[in-house]
Design a protein that fits this description.
The chain is mainly alpha-helical and about 280 residues long. The chain is built from 14 helices and 2 strands. Strands 1-2 form a two-stranded antiparallel ribbon. It starts with 6 loop residues before the first strand and ends with a helix.
Length: about 280
């Protein structure tokens, strides 16, 4: 990592997000190098073959209440998978990583649809990427090229983060020679917190509380005057700005236009301007 530019194994994360799919970045993080065409095909096929949900896991997912935070659903799915498909030995770590990459979209969206509608969705579809599989199982249709690209970019930009809290938690767990699933379960539990991955969710709650762009300036000035914490601004590591932001911002604006939800981008611009003017953040 150099300055505020995040790198994965020597590659600039923004370059990776523009030119790779998420699977290529997963391969890079797991194996140390970007895959060639044959390696990527084999890796992708392995992940696709591991998407199916065991019946016992479906039963667990069906008992989770619909009010549950999706991060808690992933945490439980990961932990339970460690019971029914255990690591057994460190030689199986690659299988475990591919299994989780394949099954997480299936598990999350199976729970979501069952808990909200009672419908048992199929986790089988012809999407060739994790991003596509997630969106397909969520919406019940093949995603558009733009939707899949944006999902890939988001997954890549959030993929790995050296010694952030969740990665650190996973490393501490791994240092005890615990199993793969325990390490990832610990990481998910840590990522869930509002001072870490949960900050994104907190921003969305803030946006919904503001409601419309016309109220944004007064809302944030009132929050600052009362010395409230405004979520989504500032970073404990990237003091002069996060290099991932311009890419995510560009695609957020693109998606908002596509979905006709541009009120959020207008709110974003107002909040950003006030924070820059008042706090230089």
């Amino acid at each position: 990592e150099t300055g505020d530019d995040l790198q994965y194994r020597g590659y600039d994360v923004v370059d990776l997000s523009e030119h790779c799919i998420f699977e290529e970045v997963c391969y890079l993080l797991l194996h140390g190098d970007l895959p060639n065409k044959d390696q990527l095909k084999s890796f992708t096929n392995n992940i696709i073959s591991k998407r199916s949900l065991p019946e016992s896991l479906k039963v667990v997912l069906e008992t989770i209440p619909k009010e549950t935070n999706p991060m808690d659903v992933l945490r439980t799915a990961c932990s339970f998978l460690g019971n029914i498909d255990p690591e057994k030995s460190f030689d199986n770590q690659m299988h475990c990583s591919e299994r989780l990459l394949g099954i997480f979209p299936s598990a999350l969206n199976y729970w979501y649809h069952f808990s909200h509608t009672g419908k048992k969705i199929s986790e089988e579809n012809d999407s060739e990427t994790i991003a596509g599989h997630f969106l397909h199982t969520l919406h019940g249709r093949k995603p558009t090229e733009t939707e899949e690209k944006v999902m890939n970019i988001s997954l890549i930009l959030y993929a790995e983060h050296e010694f952030n809290a969740s990665t650190f938690a996973a490393r501490v767990c791994a240092a005890t020679l615990s199993d793969f699933y325990s390490c990832v379960t610990a990481a998910i539990g840590t990522l869930r917190g509002p001072l870490h991955g949960g900050a994104n969710e907190a921003v969305m709650h803030m946006m919904k509380e503001i409601g419309k762009p016309e109220k944004a300036k007064a809302w944030i000035e009132n929050a600052l005057n009362k010395k409230k914490v405004v979520m989504g601004f500032g970073h404990r590591v990237y003091r002069t700005g996060d290099s991932r932001v311009p890419t995510m911002k560009h695609y957020m604006f693109k998606v908002a236009k596509l979905l006709k939800k541009e009120k959020y981008t207008r709110m974003y611009e107002i909040l950003e301007k006030v924070m820059l003017d008042r706090k230089n953040i």
